[in-house]
Amino acid sequence: MSQNNPCLWKQLPLRSSLSPCDRYKHACCSYNANVYVLGGRENRCLRDFWKYNVVSDEWTELSCSGEAAPEELEGHSMVAHKGFLYVFGGLLDSAYTTCRCALWVFDIAKQKWVQWQGKRSLLQTQMPTNRKGHSTVVLGSAMLMYGGFIDMKGTSQDFWSLDFNTMSWSLLSGSQQDSLGPGPRHSHSAIAYQGCVYLFGGLKGLREQRDFWKWNSSSQTWSSLKYGPPKLTGHSAVTYKDSMLLFGGGETQDSPKNCLWRYSFITQTWMQLTTLPGSNPPDKIHHCCTGLGPSYKTSSTSKSFCSDSGLQPRLLGGKLKPFKNKCFPAPDNAIELETFTPDREANRSSSELETSRETLIEIDGQRIGSCLTFENKAFIKQWSCSEEEALEDKDGDITQHLPDLLLVLGGKPCTRTSPISMWQVTMID
């Protein structure tokens, strides 16, 4: 292990009075230029749902009501895939929660919670029960879920797969799992990379762990990898380029850490990252991390998706323009403009879609020459465009044109009555 590649930490100021309160054991994920935060715990279990837009640097509270929406949640998970958010677990324990599948789906384009049952799932009897502290990752066209703490049963080692195409569950390995594998686990971390799932640490019963595991989707087997960080629980992890970033957590609930670790999939080595002078990361446990920008975009987000469940993929198109940034400048002609009409494009062939992608946008017969611009003090960027264009591109797919950003949201210790804490991490490779 070594200590190279310093990183820059910066706490982001709050510019709007409308924002979520500070919290822990919440769930978050990013999609395009938005970060979604759901539930968690402050001094009570929360039932609120928020969207943070990095373009406008603004929070928006979304609906979390109706029959299809989740209740108060903590220790749940949330992943994004093809225009939908998938939330699992976190329900308060009761007799009611033991006989239902704690899965909820949010349609990003329609901005509403939707019924998720597919044709096959309605007939399915084998489904995971409510749990907390589990992990979920997106691998291809499936969500993989490992472990978690189940009321009256304790820590689980169940390994489930949810097929996005059919919205049906399958049990990859259950309670009688072979000796080779992570075993019962909760409050751990997991990420996906090139057809594999990587799992680190967490709690096995009441004992903290520091073991590191790899699950290969081709061979359907687990293998133990080289240890690195100390025993950790309540930490978080993301995929960054050809590596895994792991932040925070602690050996106990009362001892949060502020260490940032990096595991290279190429060299198979761990590295503890240092910070630049004057850059002081926070001690956090039960927080959330999410990455934005091309270096944090996993391969699974680009794979094809089709469904008979009624959850059709969203081609959230928009104008793609140069991202002018003082720190990461791009040439004016580096990015061409393109457009999609979601409802029409969903039924077209791949060759037609390729032709459509190459079509430049024209308004009133004139090509748009100015680049998308906005001003966001938190991320030190300055763009310039009309207000109408800015609003139109606010929710567009500009992920590839954002600078690489790692955000750390919430976590213990948290401050009561204060807005959610947000830290930005800039990697220096």
UniProtKB/TrEMBL annotation:
Keyword line: Kelch repeat, Repeat
Transmembrane segments: none
Pfam assignment, any one: Kelch_1
Coiled coil: none
GO cellular component: Golgi apparatus
UniProt-recorded name of the protein: Ras guanine nucleotide exchange factor F-like
Species annotation: Haplochromis burtoni
